[in-house]
Write a structure and sequence with these properties.
Blueprint lengths: L4 E6 L3 H12 L4 E5 L13 E3 L3 H10 L4 H8 E7 L9 E6 L1 H13 L4 E5 L2 E7 L2 E7 L4 E9 L8 E4 L2 E4 L11 H7 L4 E8 L2 E3 L9 E3 L23 E5 L2 H8 L23 H7 L7 E6 L6 E5 L7 H8 L10 E3 L2 E8 L14
Parallel strand pairs: 1-2, 1-9, 2-6
Antiparallel strand pairs: 3-5, 4-5, 7-8, 8-9, 10-11, 10-19, 12-19, 13-17, 13-18, 14-15, 15-16, 16-17
Bound molecules: flavin-adenine dinucleotide.
């Protein structure tokens, strides 16, 4: 069924899409194997690219011939250069993208490359012969051969989603977790650990009262990510909106703290330092009576809105009740609750021999 590939890329998130594109553009015959072709280049959390540190990376990817910058430019709805009040070394390009157009544009870009084949299935193992990787095995038991394998599994390896006391397997909400690869890599001597991240609820923009919020327009002269001259900056932008939590919101959220997987020890993974949940912020900065919320549209036409700053793994009812106490959100309708996710990761540092085969 399959030819022997030069490269098999496992996973089609940002990393997998770039890897497949880079290898194929350099002439390799590539198979992009991913669990769900409808979620190629799906933005897991905020439909945004760039920001502090990450904006520089997107521009470096562009300089190296990658697509993230170009596709962001083609699908953005707002551009802002963050930290403009500081010196130029601190400036950080940040774009809000149209989530659906971003994923579609990535998929069409990959499909237009004749060197890329696609296969939709979970890869459950890599094939190793005489200490050399020779391909992958799928969950249906199909062996596909290749010279090299690139793993870009994102948050999917043994992914576990938390909402209050509820826990269920998943790589992202609505998508199955991936199994097999961690255990195999650990048996081969790699060191795995657990990380944790989280996302806020998404709400119906038609249920919000924007008159009570502060408008946040994009830059007057928007820039772009790609250095290519034929990519043009935006001429029309969509606004985001700013509102704040208050004491009543905090009191409502605190009602759920005893069911919070963050506080009762059910979440064991390490979280990123700069992405705290709203319950974490209330807990750590108890003296603050409000926290900023950025109300961000998810695209040009959709009514779905991302509630930036309100990441939470508290029970969905608590999230909803607390949101209704935020100025402008009094009649909010929730599309999806926020959640936290734990997943396996592999340390980028070399594994010292004495740690090989340590218990995962
Ligand atoms: C809830 C949540 C919140 C997040 N918040 C942020 C944030 O605020 N900022 C930030 O920078 N990042 C955030 N992230 C991390 C986000 O995952 C990364 O920014 C980025 O999407 C990672 O891209 P990726 O390509 O590495 O992986 P992902 O986007 O996770 O993509 C992984 C891909 O691999 C596929 N896959 C996985 N295992 C297999 C397998 N065995 N076989 C076949 N296919 C497989 C999946 O289907 C998916 O297509 C968040 C993630 C989640 C889930």
């Amino acid at each position: 069924m399959f030819e022997k590939y030069d490269v098999i890329v496992v996973g089609a998130g940002h990393a997998g899409c770039e890897a497949a594109h880079a290898a194929a553009t350099m002439g390799s015959k590539v198979l992009l194997a991913t669990m769900n072709m409808n979620t190629i280049a799906q933005m897991s959390c905020n439909p945004a690219m760039g920001g502090v540190a990450k904006g520089q990376i997107v521009r470096e990817i562009d300089a190296l011939g990658g697509c993230s910058g170009i596709i962001t430019d083609q699908t953005m709805i707002q551009f802002r250069m963050l930290n403009k009040s500081k010196g130029p070394a601190m400036w950080s390009p940040r774009a809000q993208s149209d989530r659906m157009r971003f994923a579609e544009t990535w998929r069409l870009t990959l499909e237009s490359n004749p060197n890329i084949d696609f296969w939709q299935e979970m890869i459950s193992a890599i094939i190793v012969e005489n200490h050399v990787v020779t391909g992958v095995r799928t969950s249906l038991g199909i062996d596909i051969k290749s010279q090299s394998v690139i793993l870009t599994n994102g948050t999917f390896l043994n992914g576990l989603i938390h909402i209050g006391k509820k826990q269920f397997g998943g790589g992202r909400t609505g998508e199955s977790a991936a199994f097999g690869i961690t255990e195999q890599l650990v048996s081969l001597g790699f060191n795995a650990g657990r990380m944790k991240t989280g996302t806020p609820p998404r709400v119906d923009g038609r249920s919000l009262d924007y008159k009570k919020m502060q408008e946040q327009k994009g830059d007057v002269i928007p820039e772009k990510f790609s250095y290519l001259p034929d990519i043009q900056p935006l001429t029309n932008q969509k606004s985001c909106w700013i509102t704040h939590t208050n004491d009543a919101v905090h009191a409502q959220l605190q009602l759920g703290f005893n069911e919070s997987p963050m506080f009762n020890g059910r979440i064991k993974g390490l979280g990123p330092r700069y992405c705290p949940s709203i319950e974490d912020k209330i807990n750590r900065f108890a003296d603050r009576s409000q926290h900023q919320i950025f109300v961000e549209p998810e695209g040009w036409n959709t009514v779905e809105v991302y509630v930036n700053g309100f990441s939470s793994s508290l029970p969905e009812e608590i999230q909803h009740n607390a949101l209704r106490l935020v100025t402008g959100f009094e009649k909010v309708k929730m599309f999806r609750p926020g959640y936290a996710i734990e997943y396996d990761f592999f340390s980028p540092y070399p594994t010292p021999p004495y740690l090989r085969n340590s218990a995962y």
